[in-house]
Automatic annotation (TrEMBL):
Record's protein name: DNA repair protein RecO
Family listed: Belongs to the RecO family.
GO biological process, one term: DNA recombination
A Pfam family reported for this protein in Swiss-Prot or TrEMBL: RecO_N
GO cellular component terms given for this protein: bacterial nucleoid
Function: Involved in DNA repair and RecF pathway recombination.
Phylogenetic placement of the source organism: Bacteria, Candidatus Magasanikiibacteriota
Recorded name of the encoding gene: recO
Domain DNA replication/recombination mediator RecO N-terminal: 1-75
HAMAP family recorded: RecO
InterPro entries xrefs: ARFGAP/RecO (IPR037278), DNA_rep/recomb_RecO_N (IPR022572), NA-bd_OB-fold (IPR012340), RecO (IPR003717), RecO_C (IPR042242)
UniProt keyword list: DNA damage, DNA recombination, DNA repair
Length: 209
């Protein structure tokens, strides 16, 4: 049996002597791990299409223990020639988050679309500030879809809705000027960095990191 789907490559790793094990997030089947047999060989036609941060059309074949990659063709790469290191780092955080926060073969077409748009937005971002904003929006949107978004509309300590100037990764949300504790919060202009810390801490709590 074979399955064809659109997919975004989240990660890959060497597998046995000459194979690669690739993690995809697919449109119709959710997260899928599959093995590319012989992908490490010089003449492998698959290898160039199995790099992380690519969107591909992939065909899976059912194996005895896992899916095997029968075919993969690149639709687009989110790594453009003009892309900056910071964009790559933040895209890496996004795909790593999705990989660790999702279960195998649980379909979520909306999450696929959000991931697709998030990576495209980061790929197209211009300066550092645009990259930071795109990253923050992407992480919060994806986290909200997965049910682990931080609390942003009220102080996580006292519940007041004004003077929200700081973000606490420890408490998972915004903190007002009165409740902030020096050294444990970041100012709002560093919100993307703070959100990243929160999500990583959350995954550690779930024993995913």
């Amino acid at each position: 049996m074979t399955i064809t789907d659109d997919a975004i490559i989240l990660s890959r790793e060497s597998w046995r002597e000459s194979d690669k094990r690739v993690c995809f997030y697919t449109r119709s089947h959710g997260k899928v791990h599959a093995v590319a047999v012989g992908a490490h060989k010089i003449r492998s036609k698959l290898s160039g299409h199995l790099e992380p941060l690519r969107e591909v059309k992939v065909m899976f074949a059912s194996g005895r223990r896992s899916f095997k990659i029968a075919q993969a063709v690149t639709n687009r790469s989110f790594l453009t020639t003009a892309i900056a290191i910071e964009q790559v780092r933040r895209m890496g955080t996004i795909v790593r988050f999705v990989e660790r926060a999702t279960e195998e073969r649980e379909r979520d077409t909306e999450l696929f679309t959000l991931l697709q748009r998030s990576l495209a937005s980061l790929s197209a971002a211009g300066g550092l500030r645009d990259v930071q904003i795109a990253s923050g929006v992407a992480l919060h949107t994806l986290a909200a879809r997965l049910g682990i978004a931080p609390r942003l509309s009220q102080c996580v300590v006292c519940s007041r809705a004004d003077e929200l100037r700081f973000f606490s990764a420890e408490h998972g949300g915004m903190v007002c000027r009165t409740c902030r504790v020096e050294g444990s919060v970041l100012p709002i202009d560093r919100a993307p960095e703070a959100l990243e810390r929160y999500l990583i801490a959350h995954l550690q709590w779930l024993h995913m990191v």
